[in-house]
Amino acid sequence: MTNINFTAKGLAALKPAAVRIDYWDESLPGFGLRITQDGQKTWTVMYRFGGRKRRYTVGTYPTLSLADARNLAREAQRSVRLGIDPAAAKKAEAEMTAKAYKDAKASYVRVKDLADKAATAARSGKVAMQAEVEKQLGALVQRWADLQGRVQAAARTMRAEQKQRWDADAKMVAERLGAAKVAVVSDLSDAKEKLAPIGATLDKWEADLPALTAPTKKPPAKGKS
Length: 225
Description:
By secondary structure, the chain is α+β, with helices and mostly antiparallel strands. It folds into two domains: 2-82, 2-Layer Sandwich (Double Stranded RNA Binding Domain); 89-165. Helix content is 65%, strand content 14%. The protein contains four helices and five strands, in the order βαββββααα. The protein has a five-stranded mixed beta sheet, with helices on one face. α1 links the parallel β1 (2-4) and β2 (21-25). α3 packs antiparallel against α4. The radius of gyration is 38 Å and the shape is elongated.
C-alpha cells in the first residue's frame, strides 16, 4: 500500500511496474488509483459495508480527471454512510441495462422476422396476414418503448431516493449545529453572569492594594529634638 498526495502532475508521472500497484490519496482516505502491469489506471474507492470490505470502481484515468474522480468517490462514501452500497447499486443498474439490451435484441430479431413475413405477405397478396403481422410488429415496438420507459423511470427513482437521503442527512447536520450554537451562547451568557461579581471584587482589591501595601511611618522617639 502506497500513500501519496494526489496531484494531476504527480499522477501523470506514475508508471506501471512489474506488479499491480494501488496508490492511495492522503487527502481522501479510501480513494485510490490502481495501476496494472500493462499500464491500465483505474480510480477506486475502498469501504466497509455490512462488515465486509468492498471495492468500488469509479472510472478510468485519464478519461476521468482527478477532480471528478474525487467528487464521485466522496459521493460513494456518502452513500455508504446513508446505508447504500454503491458497488451493489452499480451492479443492479448494470444488470438492469443488460436485461434491457437482451430484451431489445430479442425484440429486434422478432421484429426482423415479422418484417420479412410482412414483405412476403405483401408480395403474395395475403392482405390479412400482412395486417396481422403489422399488428404484432406494432405491439413489439410498443413493448420495447414501455420497457425503455420503465428502465429510465427506475433509474430516476433510484437517484431521487438517494438525493432525499442526502438532503435529510444535510438537514439533520444543520439542525444539530444550530442546537450546539444555541447551547454555546447560553453557556457563555451564564458564565459571564457568574464571573461579573468576581470581576467587581477583583477591581475593588486592585483599588485598595496601594493603601494596604504602603509602608508605615514610625513615630519620632521621645526626648530627641
